[in-house]
Amino acid sequence: MLHALLVYGDPSAAPDYESPEGQAEFQHWMQYTEELTKSGLLSRGEALQPHQTATTVRVRAGETLLTDGPFAETKEVLGGFYLVEVPDVDAALEWAAKMPNIHYGSVEVRPVVSFE
Residue 75 is part of a domain; what is its CATH number? Predict the structure, then answer.
């Protein structure tokens, strides 16, 4: 079953990646991704540009409305995703619990719809 692991975090709670702590976390992300890749379960994964670069699009009454930033006003923002091909949701949850930001962020685990 294909699952999306959506990585959320509060940017103010994340370490500065220029600091030694931030460099250590960056290495943790690289190790996590390497472990997931070696497991053969990783279909795709990407980090996203900062939430300030997002634009939300809505169409209301025939008018296209553009809003700078993410859709919801929240402290946690979507920072990236992994698509994993795992046998079941429990396996996806296990990988989510290993994420480097899990102690200050969150991971939404969601099955991907198959239209076959």
Answer: 3.30.70.1060
